[in-house]
Amino acid sequence: MNIYDIIEKKKNSLELTKEEIDFVVEGYTKNIIPDYQMSALLMAICIRGLNIDETYNLTNAMLHSGDTIDLSKIDGIKVDKHSTGGVGDTTSLVLGPLVAACGVPFAKMSGRGLGHTGGTLDKLESIPGMNINLSIDEFIKNTNGIKMAITGQTGDVTPADKKIYALRDTTATVNNPSLISSSIMSKKIAVGADALILDVKVGSGAFMKDVESAEELSKMMVELGHKFGRRTVALITNMDEPLGFAVGNSLEVIEAIDTLKGEGPEDLTELCLVLGSKLLVLGKIASSEKEARELLEEKIKNKEALNKFKEFVKLQGGDTSYVDDTSKFKLSSIKEEVYSLEEGYVQKIDALGIGEASKDLGAGRETKDSILDLGAGIILNKKIDDFVKKGDLLATIYTEKESEIEKVKKMIQNSYIIGEKNEEPYKLIIEEID
């Protein structure tokens, strides 16, 4: 068996065997197969595709390339959530306390942001003292104690995926449903949750730009989840405007806390209630989504979800006074307002443009080594279907980068598409794949 023949085989649209895929993943992880040959195979895969059996075998090979996390010591049905990435997407910080307050263990290993998408770990570090590097024993102990823990990736989980993704990122081979699915699901299966909900974003601020691509990706990931014995559901959700009003690390944590108080944006609240309802059913706390939603709404109303977030912050070393008084969050010192140049209805907001603007203000990373300004970002004042007059406030920006202000103002104004009222109202949740 050799890599040349495997490349040739896939180039000719032939199915790769489990043994061939194992050979490739192991060989590349151990530096036996060079980058140039792996790049050729990845490009052949992007052009010719993988079927579901090949995708399963690739996922399995990456899953077993390193450590897997045994969470069997956590009581109950452990649930996890994955988002394919968006702008203003702070659902984990609302969803976790909500389902944990209902008794469902929410055990999540999260990542950092890169580019225009924010990372849960970066947001949590806006709270002074927060420890987001738990050991496996601490992760299990905390989840058993309060039904919730969020940490960075622990141990040597899926090293093959890390290496292959870095190569894909530099060889224009990212955008393939099998490669995306195997990357996401290998990490999720390795962490060991019993049930998983996938929030697959589609639209201008998402990786998937059209519903058909999002459907293909969702169906593949759900099928992979089931093949690995995990209860898996996917929701396709709209990212043709940022989620909520806040974009930026501290700003999004404040918005998450407001949402747990029952004072958050309508779209963020609704998405968390829908995702949470499905997790309660998967976790066998509720027999129907209607019953689950009523329970979640009660946990917001009686402040149990907010108190659960405080418990979580305290247990991971954070300063809970920031939860009690969000004015303590340190925002960037320069505050500027952005006004509309047109009159009409907001037809669309280019979420990617807003995300890029926030990154330029200091809230996002250009590279993995970039240093974030946790107080930088954007607060939107208008959303899709709102009426706007010329001179109305569109957004407020926070930054320490004075030289970026005028450019960012134009980026935000250009991101707002203003004209006639849309014929159909904005649809947040597009489809469920189960």
From TrEMBL:
The keyword Transferase applies. Its EC number is 2.4.2.2. One of its GO terms (molecular function) is pyrimidine-nucleoside phosphorylase activity. It catalyses: uridine + phosphate = alpha-D-ribose 1-phosphate + uracil; 2'-deoxyuridine + phosphate = 2-deoxy-alpha-D-ribose 1-phosphate + uracil; thymidine + phosphate = 2-deoxy-alpha-D-ribose 1-phosphate + thymine. Keywords: Glycosyltransferase, Transferase. Residues 345-419 form the Pyrimidine nucleoside phosphorylase C-terminal domain. SUPFAM superfamilies: Nucleoside phosphorylase/phosphoribosyltransferase catalytic domain, Nucleoside phosphorylase/phosphoribosyltransferase N-terminal domain, Pyrimidine nucleoside phosphorylase C-terminal domain. InterPro entries: Glycosyl_Trfase_fam3 (IPR000312), Glycosyl_Trfase_fam3_N_dom (IPR017459), Glycosyl_Trfase_fam3_N_dom_sf (IPR036320), Nuc_phospho_transferase (IPR035902), PYNP-like_C_sf (IPR036566), PYNP_C (IPR013102), Pyrmidine_PPas_bac/euk (IPR018090), Pyrmidine_PPase_CS (IPR017872). It comes from the Bacteria. NCBIfam families: PRK05820.1, PRK06078.1, Y_phosphoryl. Homodimer. Catalyzes phosphorolysis of the pyrimidine nucleosides uridine, thymidine and 2'-deoxyuridine with the formation of the corresponding pyrimidine base and ribose-1-phosphate. PANTHER family: THYMIDINE PHOSPHORYLASE (PTHR10515:SF0). Belongs to the thymidine/pyrimidine-nucleoside phosphorylase family. This is Pyrimidine-nucleoside phosphorylase. It comes from Peptoniphilus stercorisuis.
